[in-house]
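pipeline/complex-builder :: batch 7 item 3
reading input block
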Amino acid sequence: MAQAGSGRSVAAGGDDAPRSRWWRRQPGAAGRIATIYAAVGVAWIAFSDRLVGVLSADPVVQDRLQTIKGWGFVLVTALLLFGLIRRSERGVRALGAEVRATVDSMADGVLLVDHRQCIVEANRAALALLGASSKEELLGPAEDWGRRFQLRSADGTPLRPDQYAVSRVIAGEPVAQLEGILRRADGRDVHVSVAASLVVRPGRPPLAVAVLRDVSGARRLDDMREEFLSTAAHELKTPLAVIKAYAQLLGRREPAERPALAVIERQVDRLTRLVQHLLDSSRLRLDAGAGHPEPFDLAALAREVAEHMRPSSPAHQLAVEAAGPVVVVADRARIGRVITSLVENAVRFSPGGGPVLLRVAAADGEARCSVADEGVGIPVERQAHVFQRYYRAHAGTPQDYGGLGLGLEMSREVVERQGGRMWFESAPGAGSTFHFGLPMPRESA
Amino acid sequence: VIAAAGPLVLVVEDDPDLLALMDMILADAGYRVRTAPEGRAALARVAEEMPALILLDMRMPGMNGWEFARAFRERHDRAAPIVVVTAAEDARARAEEIAADGWLEKPFDLEDVVAAAERHAGRSARRDPSAAR
């Protein structure tokens, strides 16, 4: 229904079909009627004169009969014509009413705009959407309409008439679905999505049709999700902050208890990462942005992550291999969480300990980071699904070491948002290597 | 009472446990600390004495961090740096929203709180003998 507005429709009557030779054309209803009429007419002319001869031999009577016959012919033809025209008129009217009823019963608002950018038609849903009481309020120049209903883009900036979807469509520009804000007649703002498309009419200037849909409900839901995310972050992280801070405070005061308190701290950090994963994963679904891009050294970040993770994985040898700084422009905090997530997986799935190697290097204009382990690897038949949300490749196997099944999906999403890519190799029993590549700024590539 | 000459830090935080702890560690590090559980009380503290640094939680009942930052800037412009201390999923975004001077993500390390104080309020009297003159 609300498809991207680049679609073009052709008005009824336009025949793009290749023209066939006329004698091969299928006769329509009109052709059939004309043929029957011609046959009946010729037969009448041929046989009526004979009939007159049979009825009377008197030339005077014959003359009268001829006159009556003529009048009768005209009368019958006129009646026939009247009947036919009335039938066709009714058909056209019924079709028009059907089209109007269809457009009127549509749940989306429909506005028809002509090539002079005047609104020439509006359906009932458009009236309801805008809170207008009669169609006449909506008809007229699109510019007046936009001013009256304070047409703004989704971020609230007023739109110029040449920025309206319909104006752009009429100007021949392909227009994707747009979102905007309108002020209804009652003063309430509504968020609408607009899909505009061109109606091509053979031999006549084109029209633009705009389909408006009230998306305020979806917007409210987004706002509620935003509020939920914010509350969830606060509610989940505040107690973690208190526990961590007091564990650190106790560690300062009771040096003998430091190892035990360090365990509390590590577990708090782990819980914090899980919370952050959940938040990141919801956040990524909510907005399309790339976060806060800034230039930073990927190698330094990998070293930082390894440093941070080392105490919580004493059985593993976390090493970072990088020839020199590799500068990328991306959201450092998010990329840090991606590396952390990959290292966590490497550690989790090499339960016997062993090396976990982080490599950072530049190759083919791309900054690459890989995390390799020598752990249990991923079963071949499950490898295709590892980037699916909630998918846990080792669920139901003896190697199920836990996890939420969010890390990889989120990591790949984050990397792709920064214009990068993520991939992996894995051999069951021999370990896995996860790679990601980020585009490098041109001057350092 | 210790190092009464240290720079003043105002901590605005609604969680009493966290507030008590930040008070403690900043005082330990030689700062004078004042606290407020929400924005309005914080504005009253500011009116009594301009702090060298404000550590500001964002989500608080009463006057929240956003409202406090707006009211503070209206009255005092940038008389004191503000460092946002938040459990928000994106601490940096919160800091940018109010054009803060820095941000601290919860959960934080105790060292980070002291480091933020040092960076924005200057070294405390106790740590830096030159400031105790």
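note: Chain B touches chain A through 19 residues (CB under 8 Å).
queue -> next item
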